[in-house]
Amino acid sequence: MNRKLTAALIIAIAISVSTLLVVNKRGCSTTSVPESYLYSTKVYTDAERSAPLLYREISRIPLSLLEPHALTIGQNGTIAVVGDKALLLMDSEGREKQRINLDSPPTCIAWTSTNIFVGFNTHIEVYNAAGNRLQTWQTLGENAWLTGLAANTNTLFAADYGQRIVWQFGFDGQLLGKFNGRGPQGSEPGFVIPSPYFDLAIHNESVWITNPGRQRLEAYSFAGKRLSYWGKASTEIDGFCGCCNPSYIAITADGGFVTSEKGMPRVKRYASDGAFLGMVAPSDTFPKGTVGLDLAADNDGIILVLDPGSRAIRFYAEEAL
After folding, report:
1. Are residues 180 and 258 located together in one domain of the fold?
2. Is residue 46 packed enough to be buried (19+ CB in 10 Å), middle (13-18) or exposed (0-12)?
3. Which helix (H) or strand (E) holds 221?
4. What is the pTM for the complete model shown?
5. Burial letters 143-153, b for 16+ CB under 10 A, else e
6. What torsion do the CA atoms of 49, 53, 59, 61 make, to the nearest 10 degrees?
7. Dihedrals φ, ψ of 10, to 5°?
8. Cα separation of 203 and 150, whole Å?
9. Please, which residues have CB within 8 angstroms of residue 68's CB and are 6 or more apart in sequence?
C-alpha cells in the first residue's frame, strides 16, 4: 500500500470515528427511539406514592462488612449478620459483641433458642451463642447454592437455589426430606427461580416459600404438600413486577408478611391472607441497583431490613394512626 493510499485511509477512518462520536454525543441529549419503547419506572414510583406508607425508618446501623448477605434476630434481641467470611453478633444498638471468622463466604442464617445455623453454598454449619462451631453437616452437592434458612424448635428448612429444591433437616443434621414444589407426577412447574433469591419462613405448622419466577408465595406442610399460595405478577402495587419477585420474606407476630423486591428495591407489608396493606420502604429510599434486601421482624413489630447498598441494617417502626 503506497503512502498516499495509507494517508487517505487514515483520514477516512478518522472522519468516520468523528462522525460516530458526534452522533453519539447528540444521542445523549435527544433520541430517535420512540418514547413508547423507552423503559420508565414512573408507573411503579407513582403507585408507591399512592399507597399507604405504614412505616418510618427510626434508626440505621452501619456494618463492618463489605458484602453483607443475610440477617436474623436471636436471643435477647441480639442481631446476627453474615457476610464476607464472618458472622457478626450485635446488640440492638449496633454494638458488635462478637465477630466469628468463617472458612468460606456465608449465604444465609437462622437462629433458634439454642443454635445458630449458618448456610454456605453447599453445606450448613452449627454454632452456639458463644460463637463456637458445633457441627458441620454433609455437603448437598456441587450444584447446591443455599440462599435461605428457617427453623422452628426441632426442624430446619434450607432453600437451595442451585438445585431448585427445599431441604428438611433435624437439628442433628439428619436429612428428613426434600421437595421441589412440582406436585404429584410433576403436575406443577415447581420453584421457578431465575436468579439466586429464594427464601422461606416458618409460621405455625407451615413453611412459606418464595416462588419468584411465578411472582408468589407458597405455603407447604412439613411433609412437602402445598397448602395454599398468594401473589400475582402485576405492575400494580399489590402485585410483584419484574422477572422474579419477591426476593425475601419475613413473617410478623400477627402472621402477616413483609416482602422485599429487586429491580425496584422496595419493601411492602401484606396481611396474613396476602392482602396488600401498604409500604414499609419505597424504592427511592434505597441506593440505585440495590439487591439482597433480607428481612427480619421482631416481636415488638419492628422490621429490620438488610441494605447491602448502604452496608447497613435499617429499622422501621409502624406509624401511629
Report:
1. yes
2. exposed
3. strand 216-221
4. 0.86
5. ebbbbbbbbee
6. -60
7. -60, -45
8. 10
9. 81, 82, 83, 306, 308, 311
Same domain, 11 and 94: no
Same domain, 97 and 212: yes
How many residues are recorded in the chain? 321
CA–CA dist 169, 2 (Å, integer): 77
Span 1-40, pLDDT tens digits: 444 444 444 444 343 434 333 333 333 333 444 444 344 5
Cell 463492618 identifies what position?
64
What is the total count of domains within the chain? 2
Round to whole Å and give the CA distance between 127 and 21.
58
The CA–CA distances, whole Å, from 196 to 144, 174, 176, 181 equal 11, 25, 24, 17
The amino acid at 225? K
Residues 28 and 62 in one domain: no
Partner residues linked to 75 by β-bridges: none
How far does CA 24 lie from the centroid of its chain?
37
Strand partners, 226: 220
Domain check: are 180 and 123 in the same one? yes
Q: Which domain holds residue 21?
A: 1-38
Same domain, 75 and 191: yes
Show the cell assigned to 139.
Answer: 455437603
| Beta carbons of 156 and 177 less than 8 angstroms apart | no
CB atoms within 10 A of CB 16: 10
Structure confidence by residue, pLDDT tens digits, 291-312: 999 999 999 999 999 999 999 9
Q: Quick one: 121 and 1 in the same domain? A: no
The percent of residues above 90 in pLDDT, for the chain, comes to 77
List the grid coordinates of 18. 468523528
pLDDT-based confidence at residue 204 (cuts at 50, 70, 90): very high
